[in-house]
Amino acid sequence: MNIYWESFKTFFKIGIFTLGGGYAMIPLIEEEVVNRHKWVNKDELLDLIAIAQSCPGVFAINISIFIGYKLYKVRGALATAFGTALPSFLIILIIAMFFHHFEDNKVIAAMFRGIRPAVVALIAVPTFNLGKQAKLNKLTIWIPIMSALLIWLMGVSPIWIIIAAGIGGYIWGRVAPRSGAERSDE
User: Fold this and answer.
1) Is the pTM for the entire model greater than 0.90?
2) What's 20's DSSP letter?
3) Share of the chain above pLDDT 70, in %
4) Spatial contact of 60 and 22, defined as CB atoms under 8 Å apart
């Protein structure tokens, strides 16, 4: 079977069965890419996830592009990215085509009102998980809280928050006392 078609099908399946955003697809990617196809190992997948998280853009597309590129360069990246994006595109297209038929339906409106709190949970859970992975503690918990308040209450652009956090992290890394193990890495 064509390797590009195989990678497209794999990421199409991942894209169609992933509900709740890009982070919800990590277990599916691990199952398909690491365990089933053995295209990358667990350590490589963790490195690719870290890179995809740190790049601008949609995580799901970023991770698929990095895996596709690692496998088959530009053509592989195109196949995996298209496979990841196509299911969402088709579902949104179908909803858009028929939305005007049911947008005033009271049952559908009630369903959407019920879905809204679930969407908040789908966003909150990965946020808390990322907080755990970031090893937030009493000294650092103020950073995400202050960042959220600046964005929400004062309208500060998230871009400025990211730039300030990057500069602050760099400065802290240069002036903060470090253990001997960290110094030997330089």
Assistant:
1) no
2) S
3) 92
4) yes
